[in-house]
Amino acid sequence: MAVPKRKTSKSKRNMRRASNSKYVAVGYVKCPQCHEPKLPHRVCGDCGYYKNREVVEVN
């Protein structure tokens, strides 16, 4: 059975774990109707429009 010869330092351990935190946040786009930020390819939560059509009625 394989056993490590030396203890892994906290620095090495944390460097290995840090590679998972390099993800980039999702970019936002401006809604063409109300100019509020929204996720791309999604219905706008403020006005309910998608591709210049009202898809969801928002009060």
Widest sheet: strand order?
1-2
Terminal CA distance reads: 65 Å
What overall geometry do the principal axes of the alpha carbons give? rod-shaped
What's the total count of β strands?
4
Biggest sheet: strands, sense, closure?
Answer: 2 strands, antiparallel
Radius of gyration: 23 Å
- Helical residue percent? 10-25%
Show unreliable segments. Answer: none
Question: What is the overall pLDDT average?
Answer: 91
Binned strand content: 5-15%
How many helices? The count is 1
Q: How do the SSEs run, as a string of H and E?
A: HEEEE
> Which structural class do the helices and strands define?
alpha+beta
Protein name: Large ribosomal subunit protein bL32
GO biological process, one term: translation
InterPro entries: Ribosomal_bL32, Ribosomal_bL32_bact, Ribosomal_zn-bd
Pfam family, one: Ribosomal_L32p
